[in-house]
Design a protein that fits this description.
The protein has about 500 residues and is of the alpha+beta class. The chain has 21 helices and 8 strands.
C-alpha cells in the first residue's frame, strides 16, 4: 500500500567549496601549478597579477560586504545570487583598494636588457633509439614490421615478456601479416644485436649472457662467467657458492673473478636509455625547514602560495550588464556573476590550503623538533595522524591529505612527510620509542655485519633484545622487508 508522509533527516553533505579544498589539499606543489593553469583556462575571471602586489588588502576581500564603508578582517563570505535584479548591488563586487591596471604596469624594458631563457630538456626513448638502429639493418618490409612489433612489446627494462606465438596472432589481426614463430625468433636475434647490449632478452639469464657474448675483449674469466650463468643460474641467484665451486670444479678465486665480471653487467638495459627521456626525476619540496642558530624556521614553497586575483575586465562587465535591462543582458549578467563566484571560491580554497599546510607542518616540526635539529632518525618520536590532528584541531582525514605526496627540505635531506609518522613500541625500561628508531638500528647492524657470515633474523632479534627492544623474530623480519633488506643467505659475499 502506497502512502505519503513527512520525514525529517539530518544529513551531512559537503559543499562544492569543501570538495574543492579537499582536492587541492592532497596534491603536491607541482600538480597545484597545473591545477591553477587549468582553472584559469576554464574560468577567464581568474588571473595572475602581471607585477608583484604588496598590498595587504586582497582584491576580493570586501566584495561581499553590503556596507561599503565597513572594513572586513576575515576572508570573504560566499557570494549568494540574488533572485531579484533589484537586490543586486554592483558595489558588492568592488574593492575600494583596487588599482587600475595601467597604473600597475611599467614599460621600462630596454632592447639591450639581457634575456634569460629557460632551456627545455629533450630526450629519446629507448624504443625510438632501437627503431633508428633497426632502420639501418638490411631487412625486408615484413621483417621490419615484425621488428617494430617486437620493439613495441618490450617493457621499460628492455625485456620481451610477450610470447612469440601471441605476437604472431597480433601481426595477423592488426597488420594482416602472416609470420611464423621461427620468423619472429629470427628477427628477435637482430633486435638482441642492437645497442644497448642485452636488449630484447626474455629473462635475466638471457640478458646477462647476451652482454657477456657481446664483449669485445673476451678473457677466460668472461667465458667462465658465461658458463656459470648458463649451467648454474639457479645456484647463482640463491648464492649457493659452495655448490657452484663443487659442481664446476673451480677455485674460490676463479668464482670471485667471475662474480666481479657479472656484477659489471646491466640487469635492466632498457633503463639505461629510457632514463635520458625522463624529466620528472627531481622532487620539488612543499616546505623548507632551516636551523637558524638552534631556532627552526619553516617556509612554505612559493608554488603553494600563488597570487591570484579577479580579472578586472569581468568587474567592468558586471557594471555594464547590471545597467542592461533586456533579456540578453540579464543572461550575460548571470554568466559573469557565476564566473566571478567560481573564481572567488577557488582563491579562497587556495588560501585555506596555504593556511592548512602551514599549520600542519608547523605542528609536525614542533613535534619532531629534535630530529629537525639533529637529523638523527633515532630522535624521531612516535607520531600518528591523530596526534597532529589534535594539535591543530583538524580532522584526521585532513592531516592525511596534507601528508600525502608532500615533501619537506631539511639541512639533512628531503623527506616525505609520511616519514615522520610511525607507531610506538615500548622498551624494557618502559620508554616509548618510534619504530623508525628500531629500523635505523637494524639497518646499522646489517651494514656493519661480516658479509661472509651475515646476521640471521634470530641473531638480529637477540641483538635488539640486548639493547632493550623486546620484539619478536617475525617483527624483525617485517622491518627488514620494509627496509628492502634481503635475507642473510642473499646478503652473503665471498
Amino acid at each position: 500500500m502506497l502512502n505519503q508522509r513527512l520525514q525529517q533527516k539530518l544529513l551531512q553533505k559537503l559543499s562544492p567549496q569543501q570538495i574543492l579544498l579537499m582536492k587541492l589539499l592532497q596534491i603536491p606543489s607541482m600538480a597545484l601549478e597545473q591545477r591553477i593553469k587549468q582553472e584559469m583556462e576554464d574560468n577567464p575571471a581568474l588571473e595572475l597579477p602581471d607585477v608583484p602586489d604588496d598590498r595587504e588588502e586582497d582584491d576580493f576581500k570586501d566584495m561581499d560586504d553590503a556596507n561599503a564603508g565597513q572594513e572586513e578582517e576575515g576572508e570573504a563570505d560566499d557570494f549568494k545570487e540574488k533572485n531579484s535584479e533589484d537586490e543586486f548591488d554592483f558595489s558588492d563586487y568592488l574593492d575600494e583598494d583596487d588599482i587600475p591596471a595601467y597604473r600597475l604596469s611599467a614599460g621600462n624594458k630596454s632592447p639591450d636588457d639581457e634575456q634569460h631563457d629557460i632551456p627545455l630538456a629533450a630526450g629519446t626513448s629507448f624504443r625510438e633509439y632501437l627503431i633508428s638502429q633497426l632502420g639501418l639493418r638490411e631487412l625486408s618490409d615484413k621483417q621490419y614490421q615484425i621488428g617494430l612489433t617486437i620493439i613495441g612489446n618490450l617493457d621499460d627494462a628492455g625485456y620481451l615478456q610477450r610470447d612469440p606465438a601471441a605476437m604472431s596472432d597480433d601481426l595477423a589481426f592488426s597488420q594482416n601479416i602472416e609470420a611464423t614463430k621461427e620468423e619472429i625468433l629470427q628477427v628477435l636475434e637482430v633486435i638482441q644485436d642492437l645497442d644497448p647490449p642485452g636488449i630484447g632478452a626474455r629473462n635475466l639469464q638471457e640478458c646477462l649472457i647476451i652482454q657477456l657474448r657481446r664483449q669485445e675483449n673476451r678473457s677466460r674469466t668472461t667465458e667462465l662467467a658465461e658458463s656459470l650463468l648458463d649451467k648454474y643460474f639457479d645456484e647463482f641467484t640463491r648464492k649457493h657458492y659452495d655448490k657452484i665451486i663443487k659442481k664446476a670444479r673451480i677455485s674460490e678465486d676463479d668464482l670471485k673473478g667471475a662474480l666481479r665480471e657479472i656484477l659489471r653487467l646491466n640487469p635492466k638495459p632498457g633503463g639505461s636509455v629510457s632514463e635520458t627521456a625522463r624529466h620528472d626525476n627531481y622532487v620539488i619540496p612543499d616546505f623548507s625547514v632551516r636551523n637558524m642558530d638552534g631556532e627552526l624556521e619553516l617556509t612554505l614553497n612559493s608554488r603553494n602560495a600563488p597570487e591570484l586575483r579577479l580579472n578586472r575586465s569581468y568587474i567592468d562587465m558586471l557594471e555594464t550588464y547590471s545597467n542592461n535591462k533586456n533579456q540578453q543582458g540579464k543572461e550575460a549578467l548571470i554568466f559573469v556573476k557565476q564566473k566571478i563566484d567560481s573564481a572567488k571560491w577557488f582563491i579562497d580554497a587556495i588560501r585555506q590550503r596555504q593556511n592548512t599546510l602551514q599549520v600542519t607542518m608547523q605542528a609536525i616540526m614542533d613535534y619532531q623538533k629534535e630530529f629537525f635539529k639533529t637529523g638523527d632518525d633515532t630522535k624521531l618520536r612516535p607520531m600518528i595522524l591523530k596526534d597532529i590532528a589534535e594539535k591543530v584541531n583538524l580532522d584526521i582525514s585532513t592531516i592525511s591529505r596534507v601528508a600525502n605526496s608532500k615533501y619537506v627540505q631539511t639541512p639533512y635531506g628531503t623527506y616525505l612527510l609520511k616519514h615522520f609518522f610511525s607507531e610506538s613500541m615500548q622498551k624494557d625500561s618502559g620508554e616509548e620509542v618510534s619504530t623508525r628508531e628500531i629500523k635505523k638500528i637494524l639497518s646499522d647492524f646489517v651494514d656493519a655485519e661480516d658479509k661472509n657470515k651475515p646476521l640471521t633474523d634470530e641473531q638480529l632479534t637477540e641483538i635488539l633484545k640486548e639493547k632493550g627492544y623486546n620484539i619478536a623474530r617475525r617483527t624483525v623480519a617485517k622491518y627488514r622487508e620494509q627496509l628492502s633488506i634481503p635475507v642473510a643467505r642473499l646478503r652473503k659475499e665471498l
